[in-house]
Amino acid sequence: MSDEEIERLAPELNNILGWVEQLGEVNTDGIEPLTAVIDQKLRLREDKVTAGHIRDEVLANAPDAEHGFFAVPKVIE
Amino acid sequence: MGELTRLSIVELRDGIRSREFSAREVAEGYNEAVAEARGLNAYVVETPEDALAAADAADSGKATGPLAGIPLGIKDLFATRGVDTTAGSRILKDFKPPYESTVVANLRKAGAGMLGKLNMDEFAMGSSNETSAHGPVISPWRRKDGSNAALTPGGSSGGSAAAVAAGIAPGVTGTDTGGSIRQPAAFTGICGIKPTYGRCSRWGIVSFASSLDQAGPMARTVRDCAILLGAMAGFDAQDSTSLDSPVPDWEAGLSSDLKGKRVGIPKEYRIDGVPGDINALWDKGIEWLKDAGATPVEISLPHTKYALPTYYIIAPAEASSNLARYDGVRYGMRVPGEGSLDAMYEATRAAGFGAEVKRRIMIGTYVLSAGFYDAYFTKAQKVRALIKRDFAKAFEQCDVILTPTAPSAAFGIGEKSDDPIAMYLNDVFAVPASLAGLPAMSVPGGLDKQGLPLGLHLIGREMDEQGVLNAALAIEERAGFTARAEKWW
What's the rounded Cα separation, in Å, for the pair B112 and B66? Predict the structure, then answer.
């Protein structure tokens, strides 16, 4: 972010954080945090490839792809 | 052709089946209307050939599904194979998914075609469509004061809402994380339903806040919404939170006879600063439901005032995690930066994300950071549990809840963009049902003094879309809402 953006954003973030802090008023003693909004068990699936062999499709949207891989700026000197 | 674009989906379906007119005539009529309405900025991509191909399949008898030959608009948050899917963001410029989202695939299986992709707030973060990288959608509605001021169609499904209201799609997909289907439906005088969390697969929908995101239809009538939702919903093994339960025939189950039903009126939803028109419409809504045989009961949802602050911790937290995938490596935009990988990430995100998205990523990262996690995120999840419990208790006393959809009619573009919290307050009535995962719907109730549409909001029990649709139908039949935006575009 540019300095200009930070200058504008800082008071906005402070306002938003000040506003959400009203949750402090709520008594949540003994309340379990909600983890699943609709009660259901996570399913397990069979351990098998369901959508393999599509390398070219996977790479089709990459800004830079070479030799069948995603290309990134050099990370090792 | 003008006439065909005024028909409901039910009328189109029946007319195509009985060969009163061809699906091709319908698609051509809509393609023409879409091209004429570019000034609204509702569509970001037009796909006329797609609509024509589905129409021809219906006319030749190859497609026979419940939506055979019906052309629809698709919110740009849904991945569409080979067609740009930008989620309203610069960072996904030119992204062409190699796969189809489950909801769109389901609609295609039902025989529907696609008119194009609909504009939206960036990553669905906004209530006015002003955060879109494609520029704001202009509502087809105008105030009666003669000023011709450009109004927002609401958001984030603003392009979707404007398209239905302007008659440039008979029905559309929307998504709702904290009101993004219902608030724009209310602002534009149309219907929109967010089903129970998990009814529609999230697979192929660009993620915003995964525990809240839910797809749903928007259309001119309650019956049209029932038909569309029936085609969109269903179990999908590719979405781990998809509900593995049968999809009822909601259209067949429609009945506006509410004898024996109790309608909850939450006293905490009478808040200060809401215009008299809206509270008056709410009272009218109670009368209409009474007329349909229901009994109103006052209920209490004591944690209502904490729903928005809870939402603005949970949604940004999930967003900051979801949006970490935009790294300039696998898809989307890349800005090289100063040579290193880190510099590339930074430069890409700086250029790719808009101001509201950056704001929410910052908030989300902050509330999830080690020192503040419990104080903000865990606290919000606890309050969310209390909000869900409020609804569970209320539904011991009532079968469906009636409230206004939004605390105001549509506002002007630019009127609230300088004050994030004022913008967030737009969803004060919509967010609690999202946090509790409940089905909820907006149905048009009337016009305010400025001639702008106002919506009524129905919230149902988990899995009881039918109860919501039926109460909405009872209101629709009594409200007699026939107003349309006068064509100026």
Answer: 9
Question: Could you give the 3-state DSSP secondary structure of residue B323?
Answer: helix
For A14, name the nearest residue in chain B, comparing CA atoms only: B363
Distance of CA A55 to the CA centre of its chain: 24
Closest CA to B475 of B399, B405, B402, B407: B402
Say if the ipTM goes beyond 0.90. Answer: yes
Average pLDDT along chain B: 97
pLDDT in tens, B61-112: 999 999 999 999 999 999 999 999 999 999 999 999 999 999 999 999 999 9
Checking if the pLDDT of B2 tops 70, the result is no
- Stretch B317-340: mean pLDDT: 95
Chain B (212-231) residues lying within 8 Å, Cβ to Cβ, of chain A: 212
Burial B67-101 (b: 16+ CB within 10 A, else e): bbbbbbbbbbbbbbeebbbbbbbbbbeebebebbb
- Most B CBs within 10 A among A3, A20, A47, hence the mutation to make, goes to A20
Cβ separation A23–B380 shorter than 8 A:
yes
* CB burial string B356-388: b at 16+ within 10 A, e below: bbbbbbbbbbbbbeeeeeeebbebbbbbbbbbb
- Per residue in B187-214, is it b (16+ CB within 10 Å) or e — as a string? bbbbbbbbbbbbbbbbbbbbbbbbbbbb
Q: For chain B, say whether A75 makes contact (Cβ under 8 Å).
A: yes
> pLDDT tens digit string along B170-192?
999 999 999 999 999 999 999 99
Task: Residue A13: list chain B partners with CB under 8 A.
Answer: 359, 362-363, 366
Between residues 237 and 266 of chain B, which touch chain A (CB distance below 8 Å)?
237, 240-241, 243-244
Contact B388 A61 (CB under 8 A): no
Contacts of B367 in chain A (CB under 8 A): 20
Using an 8 Å Cβ cutoff, are B183 and B427 in contact? yes
Decide if A24 and B332 are in contact by the 8 Å CB cutoff.
Answer: no
Query: Is the model's pTM score more than 0.95?
Result: yes
The residue type found at B313 is I
